[in-house]
Amino acid sequence: MSGLVALAIAVGVVAMLSIGVGSRFIPPGSVLSALFSPGGGFYDNVIWELRVPRTVAGLVIGAALGLSGAVMQGLTRNPIADPGILGVHAGAAFGVVVAIYVFGLLDFRAYVGFAFAGAALVSAAVWLVGSRGRDGATPVKLALAGAAISAFIGSATSLVLYADSTAFDEFRFWSVGSLAGAKADLLLAAAPFLAGGALLAFGVIRGLNALSMGADVARSLGQRVSLVRGAAALAVVLLSGTAVAAVGPIGFVGLTVPHVARALAGPDHRRVLPYSALLGPLVLLGADIVGRVVAIPSEVQVGAITAAVGAPVFIWFVRRRAVREL
Amino acid sequence: MTASLHSGAADPAPDRALNRALGRAVRGPGFSARLAPRALLVASAALAVLLALAVASICFGDYPLRFDQVVDAIFGGSGGQSYIVQRFRLPRAVGGALAGALLGLSGAVFQTLARNVLASPDVLGVETGAALVTVVLMTLGLTGTAALTGGAFAGAAVATAAVYLLAYRRGINGMRLILVGIGVNACVTGGTSYVLMLAEVHTAERAHNWTLGGFNGLGWEQVAVLATGLAVTLPLATGLAARLRTLSLGDGVARALGLPLERSRLLLIGAGVLAAAASVAVAGPVAFIALVAPQIARRLIGRPDGGLVTSAIFGALLAVAADFAGRQLAGDAEIPVGIVTALAGGPWLVYLLMKRGSRSTNG
């Protein structure tokens, strides 16, 4: 419990930093006064119009990415599972592009459904392809299926972008993954989906714990395995589909966070999930702050930062342990 | 799992069938050669189809030409028709075939080397590396052919070297190589997206279109670069083919047979990277050809390694066919060849994964 409290305090500190740090640095005193007694302060506008929505987005999306990664790794029993690696991002991106190009939908509320549909279809396809055979869904087979189907869907996305330069111009900003465009109304629209996904994720904790001993053991412990798997998959699709639709594909947070959570909290999902939900915002906001200061006065989008830092971590996993287990 | 890791080169074919596929030895005073009727038959049939496709792709277009007009235009002739053929359609067909042949050759080398049918230059970072450097150069305004070709070549080589070195750990494991490739690709693609976002919109669009691969800009200059690439890498790779076959038996056996292991492997990787990088640098990334061509060759010949030359011929065949399809399918517009190959090759890869998945038994 003390670990969770410490993490929560750390998240609070990073959130304060995220409000204060940027192309214009705001001293902590002004941040606090603007937050708790708004009205009249010099920085009120910047803080409430830009920094607070961005920080809230970092908190919410970070939690969603951390949770979805933890559920995905528990569901697939796969240390290198990540919504990006397993094709969820590519599927959601394709859904968004179809919504923009074919149906002309430019509003988040309109295209989030397409993002879900794409994410769900591709996840189902990856699982179907990756779990064939007597040894079931091994990490390698899932990763390969994810890469193959991502490449296929990605080229379909490219075809649409090739045909329509307006869609391409929209897409290239979205596809980096950035918190900078997050506005209050977007977050309000995303909130119900994220809340639903989080509730589902915490609802299947017992099922995930049972599944970690294998489907047969889970069944004999009285779990309805296909129900648990379905609910967990739905949670992943809701959480990472919404995150991708809202801020673009941000890779590797869902991959690394659950590993840190397990290192801190052990393998029990009752502890892994809350830890992941707190570590996710910590990592995402941290990366976002780094992105804001490395290239002052301009900034580097958080998706580029997580890709640059996360890919080496992935490779390290592959070298160190993943392959030994395969 | 180990069984399926290595299933690429180790189909348990009955000895007699294998011997028939490998052909029979012909010995005379002072020479010996192997005569493989089936491989020769497959290769010449593929060459004939390739030729027919190339001619068809020269005939069809915004301005259709009859066969005899094309022949006239190629062998001398003057005026509008021969201008169209000699200036645009012929270099496009020849260049596309050469680019595909380089990819097929490279794929055959890597798949045999890593003993894994999924190891292709696409997976090892050749395409994403070349794409990143090209996009950066275009954004900086360096759009000269020499700069772009050289840059793409360097990007491809560096990315592949990085994947290989990062995956090296007391030898190379095919699966580790592929997984590291997925990681490096993800990272490099992130960088490409970032640069595309920074660029001015028209530059970004041009750069993005380059990353889709395309033969429409090919002229004789580019054909010369591709031909040089093939002239260097094909003899190099076929000269090392015997070593490649020994390597495909596994490191232990190869060492026991007295093969200089690391040197042979390094030379072969060099040839494979060189071939793929030359193709990507000139024609842009054309996905999946390197993956698919050697496997078609392998299946048709019925021989575990498929043969380097046959793989190259099938690579050329696929490239010309995809380019032709991309021009015909969309009416007035043109679908970039890389998208055609990806849309057609993706399901093939999925099929392959499903087949492997159901075959592997021990977990």
UniProtKB/TrEMBL annotation, chain B:
The keyword Protein biosynthesis does not apply. Its main location: membrane. Gene3D superfamilies: ABC transporter involved in vitamin B12 uptake, BtuC. It is found in: Cell membrane. It is a multi-pass membrane protein. Keywords: Cell membrane, Membrane, Transmembrane, Transmembrane helix, Transport. CDD domains: TM_ABC_iron-siderophores_like. The chain crosses the membrane at residues 39-60, 93-113, 133-166, 178-199, 266-294, 306-325, 337-354. Belongs to the binding-protein-dependent transport system permease family. FecCD subfamily. This is FecCD family ABC transporter permease.
